[in-house]
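Standup notes
- DV: blocked on the single-chain target, sequence here:
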Amino acid sequence: MAVVKVSPYMRAEKPLMWLCEKDSSAPRLLPVAVGEFEAAAIQMHLGGEKPLRPISYDLFATLMEELHVPVRRVVIHSVEGQVFHAAAVVESDGRLREVDCRPSDGVALALRSQASIFVSAELLDQAGIRASQGDGVEEAISKFYELEPQILGQRREQESLALPDPAQMSSPQIPDPLADLEHRLEQAVICEEYEEAAQIRDEIERVKSSGS
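- DV (later): unblocked, structure below
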């Protein structure tokens, strides 16, 4: 797979990393949600930008090289819900070892280590997007983004058409701030927004303390 670009999804602060099959007449694309820092690190390398000082991925790639533990490849192998799973394959003492990692971290490291990036065939069958005949990669990505307003519109329509539960009409439910915070925390972790997740976690602790 080749990393073709990093671009926003739904909102500017929700980046997608776009991977594309190499050596295929009809390549499939795989969009993977990544965090803002990871997206910036990947885009920086794709754009040939050099940071003033090494960022964490540069440091780690250099350490692996100095310790003679090269990164051979990164494999994105499965997805559960919205969470993708990957492994970095490194060589140590003549043996290959798999290290669990996030796809964004694995790709950022692979780019700096000149390691190959793979996606399992099963995952591409499950989540890949095939470009229409005659379309290039950019055209396929553009068509994906053209669906955004439709996706959001359908969600709003479904919400507006949803009928209230009779039990809720007779007995209005009191909003549960803790449940809402826990849901927001789950979404923040899925989207790899760890600064926001930390703030939400602290708010959850405050709510629990005040409740007790």
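- Follow-up: The chain has two domains: 2-146, 176-212.
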